Each structure stands twice: as C-alpha cells, then as structure tokens.
Amino acid sequence: MPNDELLVEILECQSDTKVVHITLNSPETLNSLTINMVNEISNLLDDWEVDPQIKMVFISGSGKKAFCAGGDIRALYESMCSPEGPVFAETFFESEYRLDYKLHKFSKPIISVLDGIVMGGGAGLMFSSSYKIATERTKFAMPEIGVGLFPDVGFTSLIKDLPQGLGLFIMLTATQLNAADMGFCNLTDGLLSSENIDQFFLDILNITWQDEADENLNLLGSLINSNFYKENTKSFASSKVKEELEMIQSMTNENDLVKVVENIMNNSIEDEWYKRGKESLKRGSPTSAHLIWLQCLNSLNFSLKEVFQFELNLAIQVTRMGDFKEGIRALLIDKDNKPKWKYDAITDVPPEWIKMHTDPAWQKNPLEDL
Predict the structure, then answer these.
(1) Beta-sheet strands, E only, within 82-122
(2) DSSP state string for 40-90
C-alpha cells in the first residue's frame, strides 16, 4: 500500500487481551479512502474476527483536520472520463459498500474516534461502528448534493431514525453538524476532548476486555463517561440542530419535494447557518435533490442489505448519467464552482429521468450475496 496510508497497531491490554487501532493515514487527502485502504481493512477484519485475543477494533484518522472526508473522488472522476466507462467507479462503490456492511455485521465492537471532518466514506465508517466518539473538532455533513451524487454509504437506512425531517434537511442543504448536534440526533455515543485522545488510548491498555461485545461496550462507556474525560467536554459548543429543529420540521413537513425546497429557500431568518444551507441547495444538483427525496421515501421500507443494494444501483447509474462527473469537475478539477447540471432547476427534472437512475444497472446486483 503506497505511503503507509493505513497504519495498524495491535494494542496489548490486561490479561492477554488485545484491541486493534487502525489509523487512516493520508492527512493530505483528509484521510480519504482509496480502494487499497478499503480492501486491506476488509481483509484484516476477516483475520481479526477469528482471533480470540482481539476484542474490538478502533478506527481514527491521522492529523487534526479529519477522521475521513470521503472516498478517492479523483480516481472516481478519472474512471468516469475513461473511454471504457466507469469500471473502476463500479468496483470502488461495491468494495466500499461491502466493507461498510461487513463492519455493520462484525461480531466484535467497532469504535470510531471522529476527530475532525466526517463525510462520505468516513460517514460510512461511522454509521457502521458500534460506538462513535465525537470531539470538539468533529464536523459531520452529507454534502453530496454539491457534486451531483447522493448521501450514500448506508445513510438511507438512518434517515428514519433521525428526528423527523432532519435527514432530508441536512441532505438537501449539506448542513454541517457538530458534536452536540450528533449526540442530540443519536448519531454518536460519547464525547472526548481532542487533547485527551492520546491518554484515552493509554487508558484502554489498562482494561481487561471481555469475550462478550456488550460487556466491552459497557467498559468503554464507563471509561468515556468517567469524570476526567467528561470534565474536559463541558466547553463543547451547543447544538444548533436542537435549537432549530422545530423550524426545520416546519419546512420539511410536506408531501412534495418542490414545496420543501420552496420552504427552505423562502426562509427569511437572517442566520448564517440557514444562509449556508440555502446556498448549498441553490448550487446543488437538481437530480441529486430528487434522489435524496427518493432515499427518504425508501428509508422505512428497506433492510440494511436492501439499502446497500439500492444505493449501489443508484451510485452506478449516477456515474453513468453525468451530473456526478460534472460536479467533481467544477469543484475539484477545474475549480470554477460552476457546474452545468443536466437540469437547471428541481422543477425541471422529469420523473422518467429519475426512473433511469433506479432502473437495474446490471442483470444481477453485485451485492445480492450479502
């Protein structure tokens, strides 16, 4: 693996018990996931699951800026520009979703230490973790509307569990959540000051981990909630989502996407938080907005396996349709921030165009064997 982009450390704890610490080690790309990283983590999980000494797996990111900001978006762009078509993109999305599903179903606890930016592929690691720890630097968002994609990596399954209307709002507006927001929404389980992360990993060594996953999660919770660590989180910023939830729900409580968008755009509150969201929605892909609406409609209906199958089909069709390629070009390649979406407005997008995104991308979905 080039440049040691994945660091793996086996930590020796009490009574011959062990835990694993994975560090995503590509700070120059905000620890974005490459396909090599995805495949290596997946292979290592297979080994660790059958090792009786290893009791849990911790995942963190290198540097102070990000846990993980997404996937290898430049490689995806190059794939979509290839004369052979987005073959690599299909392989990447399938591998990433397989890893996320494996993490969801892993028999031992997966712990994510979410210090810094958490987006895209990093959000997938977070969603599939058994215990999620936020810091004062945590910045979570699902900003895919801005690049013509949709919030994937299993997020469809979580929409129904968030406060009503919130999932739709943060997906349409790419709204950023802090640690308090995430705790309020039950997206995370514990808080940790970034200054205490090193001490936290030292304290882990002094615990005798058990064979049962639930017992280990209780031990972990007791450590995180001890007075030493809790005292250092009292200064964390409060939850803006909690403060604004009633307004958010009033804007999203509609049976029609166009009406929801009108409510958001017509919101006259003079608040930078809302202004940023409106600007993200205004600049975002109209097709992505419709796919987000479709995700919300399906959140209640799909099992986790069906969610990943649905999202993989949608992701592959997106790589073939054009807006995702154009979104990356405008944001990261040419950096003109002027994407030319296939449709100019949400009201212009025809139902048959959205149906093309949900039509089977292959004769058999590659994730049918999950």
Answers:
(1) 110-114, 117-118
(2) HHHHHHHHHHT-TTEEEEEEEESSSSEEE--B-HHHHHHHHHSTT-SHHHH
What residues have CB less than 8 Å from 325, skipping those under 6 apart? 77, 80, 81, 148, 319
- Tokens 């690049």 found at: 147
Question: Which is nearest to 299 in space by CA: 141, 144, 121, 165?
Answer: 165
> In 266-337, where does DSSP find H-type helix?
272-283, 286-298, 304-321, 323-328
Query: With respect to CATH, is domain 2-358 assigned 3.30.70.1170?
Result: no
Q: Give the other-Cβ count within 10 Å of 57's Cβ.
A: 24
Give the whole-angstrom CA distance, residue 189 versus residue 60: 15
On whether the CB atoms of residues 22 and 61 are closer than 8 A, the answer is no
Lowest mean pLDDT among 2-11, 215-224, 310-319: 2-11
- What's the predicted TM-score (pTM) here? 0.96
Query: What 3-state DSSP class applies to 22?
Result: strand
Burial class (CB in 10 A: 0-12, 13-18, 19+), 191: buried
- Domain parsing of the chain, residue ranges: 2-358
